[in-house]
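ok so heres the complex, three chains, lmk if somethin looks off
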Amino acid sequence: MSVSPATKPVRPLLEAKGATMRFGGVTAVNAVDFVLGEVELRCLIGPNGAGKSTFFKMLTGQLTASAGRIHFRDTDITAAHPHEIARLGVGIKTQVPNVFNGLSVRENVFVAAGRKKSLARTRAIVEETLTRLKLTEIATRLVGQLAHGQRQWVEIATVLAQEPELILLDEPAAGMTKEEVERTAALIREINRTHAVIVVEHDMPFIRMIAKTVTVFNQGRILIEGDVDTVLSDTRVRDVYLGKQAA
Amino acid sequence: MTRPPSPLRALARPASLSFLAMVASGLVILFGAPHVLDTFGLVQMTGFTAMAMFALSQGFIWGYGGVMSFGQAAFLGLGGYAYAVGVLNMGDSTVPVFLAIAVPMLFAGLLGYFMFYGRISDAYIGVITLTVSVILFQLVNTTSGSQYRIGEAELGGFNGIPAIPALNLPGDAGNQLDPEGIWYAAMGSLVVVYMFLRAILASRFGRVVVAIRENETRAQLIGYDPRLYKLLAFMISAGIAGLAGCLFANWGGFISPTVFGLTMSAQVIIFVLVGGLGTLLGPILGAVLIQWLTIEAGAQNVIDSNLGLGAILVTFVLLIPQGLVPVARNLVLRLGTALSGRRMRAKPLGPAPGTALAGEVRR
Amino acid sequence: MAPDLIGLLGFNVLAGIATLALITLGLGVIYGMMRIINLAHGEFMMLGAYTAVAASDAGLNIWVAMLVLPPLVVGLIGLVLERTVIRFLYGRMMDTMLATWGISLGLIGLVTSIYGNVVRGVSTPVGSFEIGRYGASLYSLVIVAAACAALAGLYLLLRLTKFGLILRATMQNPRMAASLGVSPDRIYMATFALGAGLAGLAGGVLAPISGISPAMGAAYISRAFITVLGGGPAILTGTGLASTLFGFINELVSFKTTPVIGDVALLVAAVLLIRVLPQGITGRYLRRSL
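and the predicted structre for the whole thing:
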């Protein structure tokens, strides 16, 4: 039985159904259903150990779900390797900066931009990305010698240089100064004009700067999902998360 | 261990100059040596060249690929034996030379598939490669007796294969090269392999290989499959080691299981470590220096060669882990800037947090 | 197959498993506790064997020369090497491998300089017995006993002593142990000496059945490495299970072919095993065991 593409229901950009991750006896993510539309911006929040980072790793292929399915458009990525997911057009910034410390800033971006593209096109992307993120000044520096905040930017640059369709950012504002946080927020809003973005974040002021829709994780499940103001004023959310944050 | 300098950075401006200078000096040595040295000296230099080629194979996979291949002797031995068996059967040396490259490459492909696609840790790769070379050594060691033969070639167990015909010009099997001819073949191929590796490292493939050494996770998240790149780099390295084995067999006209031995694997590690991890010149110079020292020490019977090698290895790991070439390069840079009275702009090879080579470390 | 032949084969398999456990334990202790792959392990065994030779030449009781002196002497040598070389390299896995490789070469060279590159031997202190038509060496029983004693001793050490408790804590979580006020430096020093001592014991016990030469370590290390890799992080369980599995394969293939082919089979089995279980047997199963 074959279904012609025309009659197929249009899948969302990213969809998780019953996604579950068990480590030994611990269930870190428990039957999570999650849908992300095209060019959507979504923030994942929740207390430590709520499962949001684990869920994030399942989306990126760094962990393989114990049960459930995850689709990127029409492709089942449940058991895919990270590099396969990346090739579908998913750019990922990890929590701990993953950069090439021994390479220069430009080389970092070059390696990211250069997959399956002509040299001229690659160079153009590199220079454009460096300018966009104001990294041209330090383009020849070794990334290992840069400050933490700068390395975060380099990583964001490598993600953008891949020209992905969906961008996953795990705590992009961690360890940044106030100005850097504001720049990052502005950048995310700008990226979101053309790209879908998922942001995992702890920093509440930052969430308020960027968020439209928020998904709250608690104890491996989705507690509530909705408009940022509605969610943040929900008492259950205050109990599990904001209460702690205020303390 | 100190981080090796970025090859991409080195390729920026002065790189093409240094490349030309390297190739030019290689050619000067290639054509100059026969005029300066007698046959004995030339034969000795050929031996150094074979070891330098071997060192290049290790320097590439370890220094640039970040793969702890600690049993590189396996590929040297396979190459040497493949050449010997091939040329004894075929007469003409053309195909055997290709066999000397292809057999180790295929073997590395098979071994590498299990290692890299099994996603085992760096340290385990070191142990497995080492173990493979030890077992090959033991295996070949037991092949004495006329029942162990491949076609015309008797493997000869621990006595090895004597009287291996030397290289000949393609298609002219009766006309074997004399020592001078073999020198040209050996040194010429060293220059070619050096150029080949420089080209690889400048290519996109090479950049990705180095990027994977720097941060495998990031490379993956960009969309590169580290397993494939490591496997290909491993195979290239094995092919070069095999070619070194072919030269080695030509140099002495003889090959024995010692080419698979632990000492051989240790030696090539020492060549690279002494010369400098993450450079191509370092392994070449390290090989020549250590080989020369070994011969000198052996001639004067000063010290057991294993004892000397062990002492060198421990000393370098503890005190000069970056190797001589990077140290010298830094010194020259520092001297240059001191003379010109400016502040140093080039960054020294400072240790970076969390070296990619250190692999699985718990602490 | 005749019953006596099966009996002999079974006996040899048992002895093979014991040998494997004995030669692996020291390596496993150092790797399991310290994440250091000690490439000088074979040479520590070699030193144990030479200690036995020297002691029995000096007229010492053969059992003391084989079982008591080698672990003490080699443990002491391990202690000295840890203090002078290894301790500067903690946390740098590759460098520790390289340094122990250097130590390995150095020890081979040193012993060659002293004793020369000749093969020596110690006579077996016990005779043989018969299984049906076949003679079997009683000494194999000594090896089995030694292996059992070493495993049991290590188990008791880890279970019953304060040192063992600290070791286990360090093994589970080095940072936590350090924060409890335990000096990891001391622990690592003791662990390295313990591992070296166990290697020395293996060398001493196997001295009567091996050709003792400066390079003899190479004959053992491939099997020891394979068993540690196959066993995974839990030292005792891993060594026990992997020795049983690999010892069985090794002896069976060796019996059908030659010992070298037996080693090849061992390697192939190990490579296939880690393709399925990259962290070894106890990396997947029985993770909480010792």
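quick notes: Chain C has a mean pLDDT of 87. thats all i got rn
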